[in-house]
Amino acid sequence: MLLERAKHLKMKIFCQWDHSLDFSYDDSKVEFIVDAPNGVVMEGYLFKRASNAFKTWNRRWFSIQNSQLVYQKKLKDSLTVVVEDLRLCSVKPCEDVERRFCFEVVSPF
Fold first, then answer.
1. Strand 20-24 relative to strand 57-65: parallel, antiparallel, unpaired?
2. pLDDT given for residue 88 in this prediction
3. Which residues contact 77 (CB under 8 A, 6 or more apart)?
4. CA 32 – CA 36 distance, rounded (Å)
5. pTM over 0.85
6. What does the angle CA 102 – CA 69 – CA 1 come to, to the nearest 5 degrees?
7. Looking at residue 49, what is its pLDDT?
8. For position 11, what pLDDT does the model report?
9. Which of 3, 6, 14, 106 has the fewest CB atoms inside 10 Å of its own CB, making it the most exposed?
10. Residue 98's closest CA among 6, 21, 17, 22?
11. How do strand 40-49 and strand 12-15 relate by DSSP bridges?
12. CA dist 101 to 12, 18, 21, 76, 94, Å?
């Protein structure tokens, strides 16, 4: 059910060097399963903006597990940790990105 729910989310992500992340989605309700047996609270494809000169958007498989935001290039690839502890992050609207419905996750690290 969580995977089905994640398929309906339309999210995008943008990584910046200042340890902040921009997301966007158009679903009015997001459910989290805190006690998931595998530690995965939410998962699905997002778009991650490259930090190189071209700033292209790349589709990646993201998940929130054990309070970390992680992604894989493909579903079976190894994990890359984006945010070590989401509980320490704050969220704010992001209006300077060309994508709609964006918000920024800011890490204190």
1. unpaired
2. 93
3. none
4. 9
5. no
6. 85
7. 77
8. 36
9. 3
10. 22
11. parallel
12. 9, 21, 13, 29, 8
Question: Domain containing 87 — which CATH number?
Answer: 2.30.29.30
Nearest CA to 73 among 92, 50, 95, 105?
50
pLDDT tens per residue across all 109 residues of the chain? 444 433 333 333 333 333 445 555 544 444 555 567 778 888 888 878 788 888 888 888 888 888 888 989 887 889 888 888 989 998 888 777 777 767 777 888 7
Number of domains in the chain: 1
Distances (CA, A) of 85 to 9, 66, 100: 22, 8, 26
Residue 51 per-residue DSSP state: S
Domain ranges, residue 69: 2-106
- So what's the pLDDT on residue 33? 58
Q: Token pair of 20, please?
A: 């902040």
Q: Is residue 7 within a helix (H) or strand (E), and if so which, with residue range?
A: helix 2-8
